[in-house]
Structure formats: structure tokens, C-alpha cells
Predict the structure of tRNA-dihydrouridine(20/20a) synthase.
Amino acid sequence: MNAVPPAYRLSVAPMIDLTDRHCRYLHRQMSRHTLLYTEMVVAAALVRGGALRLLDHDPSEQPVAVQLGGSEPGELAAATRICVDHGYREVNLNVGCPSDRVQSGCFGAVLMRDPALVSDCLAAMREAAEVTGAGVRGAGVTGVEVTVKCRIGVDDQVPEEVLPAFLETVQAAGIHRVIVHARKAWLKGLSPKENREIPPLDYPLVLSMKRAFPDLTIIINGGIGSLATARELLEQGLDGVMIGRAAYHDPGEILLPADRLIFGSDTPDRSPEAVVAAMRPYIARHLAIGGRLGAITRHMLGLFAGRPGARSWRRSLSEAGSRPDAGLEALDRALEEILAAT
Ligand SMILES: Cc1cc2nc3c(=O)[nH]c(=O)nc-3n(C[C@H](O)[C@H](O)[C@H](O)COP(=O)(O)O)c2cc1C
């Protein structure tokens, strides 16, 4: 049997308010191999102890990577140690997020202006990951990788100049894998949402970076809406593809066939119905400890996208999800409706 390609060949992007633990558990029911990312976790909040619950995850979510936001090397190192102790095997630094909240803390995309600081941050994180990982796993082998997610530039920067300089710097800091969101962030005047849509995508630039830095593992991100496009980009030489919104909103198209089409698995794709069945015991456990149905089912609205009955699935699940007392019977009813419509 051929070896399965590395998980980074396809990943679901970190997305605040979306890729929480319930979302990742759902995505894992759809693809065994795709790499999943947490939402961004602010390093300072972790170190102060306030955000530790954001690191909670089910072991079956693996492979799962945690993303940190920060720009203070000591703080990022301490946060990395906490993440490794929580079982994460990849810690990613966010150098791509343009939101005001993030800019005010001086992290995210604004760091594209300060590669030397990024380098210090990454070096500190690497050292922390190695020391902590060695403690966990013994002599020298850590298996904990530090990676970075960046833009091609910000504001008036010239991407053709800034991006290679940035990659050179992070490579010198010992980083082997970089995710490039293939558009600029405009830090003034655009909302975070507009910053994911308005600055034009530049895939050729990212492809040229792979040729210029053959030893770097380069993952492309931004605007990828189908596995066909993902496969084209892989065939052109990129090491991996990260998909955000399309994977979240249309997981049936992106995640259900991913193991077969991206990782070469010969196992038949799971059906959305089988995914609902696989989620049932997880949801039951969540309800039993006082959790709300909607916290999980809000991530399942797109499961049947494109199928007859998809709208009523979405409607009845959202209605049920907004009721604090809703239980599994609401999920079962929504499923019966969609089965009747098919
Ligand atoms: C709701 C939302 C939240 C996001 N939060 C993060 C985040 O926490 N960290 C990050 O690096 N990028 C974040 N992003 C950006 C995505 O990771 C990704 O780079 C972007 O959506 C482009 O990929 P796509 O076109 O495949 O969605 C977010 C995007 C969305 C839509």
C-alpha cells in the first residue's frame, strides 16, 4: 500500500467563531486525513490562563494544529509550551489576520512589516516546542512543528519584493512550512471580511515562491472553492492547499471526497447521512453535560448543500439550534425531512 501523503496536503483554515472543537469533530467525521486548525488563540490570554478552554479538543480530531496570535517572543514561547502540553503537534503563528482587534495588539498581518520580529517570535516558539516536546516524548524527537501563516504583503508593500524576503527570514529561523494567503491585507479602510475578498488573489506569485524556495513546504490559501482547483494547484508543484470558507459552507463537496481525491484513499466517501449518524453519540454526550444542541448543529447546516431538501434541513436545524431545550429528536426530525425530500 502507498503511504498516505502528509496531512498538510489539504487543510481547513483557522477561522475565528467557526473552527471550534465541535466543528473540527464534525470535519473529522468527513475526512480522516485532512489537517484541521483551531481558531486563532491569543497567546497573552493563554499565558494568563483565561483561554485554556479554547485548547480543549477530542483526541480523535488529530491531526489538528493550533494557531496562536501574538508578537512577544517570550509570551509566544510560553503559549507554545502550553499548546504542546495539551497535545498539539503543530503550532502556527498568525501573520495574516487584518482585524482591528488584532492590529491593536500588534499581531496578525501587520507583522508582515516586521520580519525580524516574526523571526524572533518563531525562533522562540521553536525552542519552546523542542524543549517541551522532548520532555513529553523523550530524547530529541519532538514531532512538534512550528509553522507560519502569512499574506503576500500589506498596504503599499510590493509582494514580489516583500514575500521572498519574508520567506527567507522565516526559513533562516528554522521554519520549514509556510501557509500563504495569496492576497494582500489592506490594514486601513477595509473590514476583515473585505480583506478576504477585495485585494486580488495572486496564485502565480505563490507558485513562483515554491520554485524559488524548493526546500520550503509551501501551502497556498485564498479563494479555493473546489477540490478540482486544489488538485490543479498541487499538480503545479505546491505542497498543500488550505481551504477556509468553502470547506465550512460546503463540506459535502470539499471534505467528503477529500480522502479519495487528495490523499489517494480507496475507501468510499462517507454520505452526509452517515456523518449525521456518526455525530449522534458525540451530540448526546454534549447534551448530557448540559451543552446546547445548537453549539454543534450550527456547523452542520451546510452538510446537505446542493441536495433536494437542503434548505429545509438548514431551516429546521437552525430553528432547533436556537431553542435551549432542543434535543436529538430535533436532529432526527430534520434528517427525516431531508430523506423524504431525496
Ligand atoms: C470567519 C472567518 C474567521 C477567520 N479567522 C481566522 C483566524 O483566526 N486566523 C487566520 O489566520 N485566518 C482567519 N481567517 C482567514 C482564513 O483562515 C483564510 O485565510 C481566508 O478565509 C481565505 O481562505 P478561503 O478563501 O479559503 O476562505 C478567517 C476567515 C473567516 C471567514
Observations:
- The first helix runs from residue 21 to 30.
- Residues 13-18, 39-40, 67, 94, 96-97, 149, 181, 196, 221-224, 243-246 surround flavin mononucleotide (CB under 6 Å).
- The chain has two domains: 10-263, 272-341.
- Residues 10-263 form a domain with the TIM Barrel fold (CATH 3.20.20.70).
